[in-house]
Design goal:
The protein contains nine helices and 13 strands. It is an alpha+beta fold. The strands form two sheets. The protein has a seven-stranded antiparallel β-sheet with strand order 3-4-5-6-9-12-13, with helices on one face. Strands 1-2-11-10-7-8 form a six-stranded antiparallel β-sheet. The C terminus is likely disordered.
């Protein structure tokens, strides 16, 4: 309307009609093909009105302008149709990827046993929404068992091994009484998988770091077995966030045989404390200057918050640190121990397969 009024009131030698193509072009940014086509028709009608007031419809100049406007409007509508179709396909792919992630990474319950739980997954390949980081939790007769892991690689190439490890944990967690035995069972599953599916050019290069955790209902302790995985942080009220001192075994998939090769670390986990588990996609995230993300320092700021709020703050802070996009998949789990009626206390110690060794 503005272009039409200005063109009609302008001198005969001024032609603003070609600018009418702006209307359908701008409409295509926020509307579908039908609305864009309708605006294109209105723009063509405006060109006719301009022609009537400026020399008539039969002039060569106005005929060329109307044909050009009609062709460009049709082109904009065609591009709008293609864009809408691609958008629908992308939305469908994303919904399938999200469904696949939920199949692989079952959402953890907000409460399980004596724990309040929150989890966060950030895929490096944003469109895929899934990758090689994994976590799971299950109830046993005496408490809760949790696993967090990181398959070598990222994105779609690591999904097969992540799916295998999750399935193996969900089954084996109920069949083995100790975490070293559970770790040995997972090692056998991963080894069988790699024997069948590991590419020849990657022999010996496929593995998965894993942290297994057991939290009894009847005592204020936590037991852990690490297979090359970063140690969790123990967050206590008052702003303390300290990494636990573990004795990790090699990652799964490197051929370690039998429970004797795995160490069981035991630590106090009092009501009100929070355990923060994470993958190396968090600790190895770098800012523009190449500095790693200081997770202990940042987590200490929010030790008084709920697990959900803690992870929300860490998510924003981590993405701000890397400039909005991670270079590797990242997963975090926050486990907050709620008050119970069983006030046991166990100083941290390390248990090997052949007995106890107290940690200094």
């Amino acid at each position: 309307m503005l272009i039409t009024v200005v063109d009609i009131r302008s001198p005969t030698g001024v032609h603003l009609g070609p600018a009418l193509v702006i209307a359908p072009a701008v409409t295509a940014f926020f509307a579908g093909p039908r609305t864009t086509g309708s605006v294109g028709v209105l723009a063509l009608a405006a060109q006719v009105v301009i022609a009537v007031f400026h020399g008539g419809l039969t002039t060569t100049n106005h005929i060329v302008q109307m044909i050009t406007l009609a062709v460009l409007s049709a082109l904009v509508v065609s591009l709008c149709v293609v864009r809408e179709r691609q958008g629908q396909e992308l939305a469908q792919v994303r919904s399938v990827a999200e469904a696949a992630q939920h199949v692989l990474l079952w959402p953890l319950p907000e409460h399980i046993g004596p724990l309040r739980v929150a989890c966060l997954y950030l895929a490096a390949e944003e469109e895929a929404r899934i990758g090689g980081d994994l976590y799971a939790a299950t109830r046993t007769d005496t408490g809760v068992r949790v696993m967090i892991g990181d398959v070598r690689g990222k994105g779609l190439s690591a999904i097969g091994e992540a799916a295998l490890l999750l399935g193996a944990f969900r089954e084996a967690a109920h069949q083995h009484t100790t975490l070293p035995a559970l770790a040995a069972a997972l090692e056998r599953s991963v080894t069988r998988y790699l024997t069948d599916f590991e590419p020849t050019e990657e022999v010996g290069e496929r593995f998965a770091t894993t942290l297994l955790m057991e939290i009894p209902d009847s005592d204020h302790i936590t037991r852990m077995t690490s297979c090359g995985h970063p140690p969790p942080l123990l967050l206590t009220p008052g702003g303390s966030a300290a990494p636990l001192s573990l004795h990790p075994a090699p990652p799964l998939g490197v051929g370690l045989a039998g429970p004797a090769g795995y160490t069981l670390d035991v630590f106090t986990f009092q009501p009100g404390d929070t355990l923060l588990l994470y993958t190396d996609g968090v600790t190895e995230a770098r800012d523009a200057d190449g500095a790693f993300y200081p997770i202990a320092e940042r987590a200490a700021r929010w030790t008084e918050h709920s697990p959900e709020t803690l992870l929300s703050h860490l998510r924003r802070d981590l993405l701000a640190h890397v400039g909005g996009r991670l270079g590797d998949d990242a997963a975090l789990i926050a486990l907050h121990r709620t008050p119970t009626t069983h006030p046991g206390h166990h100083p941290g110690k390390t248990i090997h397969a052949d007995g106890f060794r107290h940690r200094p």
